[in-house]
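Please review this pair:
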Amino acid sequence: MKVLLLGATGNVGSRVLPALLAHNHEVVVYVRSEPKLRELVPAPVLSKTTAIVCGDAEDSTSIRDALVSNRCNAIVNTAGLAAVFPWQAPRMQGIIHAVTKAGVEASEIMGYSLRCWFLGGMTVLDLPGRQGTRISRYLPILLDHGHTYDHLRSQPAANLQWSLLAPSQMTPATPGIELLEKPRGNSLITGLDCPPEWKPSMLDFIPFLGGLISCATNASKYATKLDDNADLIAADLASGDVKFVGRRVGVIESKKGKAE
């Protein structure tokens, strides 16, 4: 696929870029500052990209033009930082709305739908056994991701085939960013709309308190690696599978190790 990547200078995007290249995607990098990109991402990685486009992540016209001029098939958006606490105003919705607007318009112009991955967080997932009740009800942080999910659900499926990755804390698997000779694979187990391998609490039946205890006892085991999440996105785009389309995707590391 030819992929427009937003947020390549961030922690997630800088790992997604080499993962996309390793899976033989053509990558058009969309960034605010090319000098910053070249400072953070090694030249061997950037040399494999198809194009670098400079623009604001909240400029839907610029994003649309980048999609159309490069005939992209997909979008991966890792740009923006979510507001952490509930009393903070949403911080990334300007970017989300700009990217989706650009994607819909580009899809209409080019005559085909775009496959899209957006980055969320674990609290946007439903609590297992309580479908329709988000984890954020019990852990009210990163509510920005809930706004992202609600907005994505309102988008026309004929134009945007979206998925929302919903990991917990992510840390690097390697100390630096480097060009990959082949896909690194990943050790992730996925869950659709709910966290995978969630262990119910004996106190789940207690209103509110049961859900709070369940979240508190489960949350710590969902830490994953940035590089694994990047490979998951890149591998999914390469596979052409539709199992994640229109879904929130929870992740946990497999105890069995990496799946190539």
Notes: Helices lie at 13-22, 34-40, 43-46, 60-69, 93-110, 144-153, 209-218, 226-239.
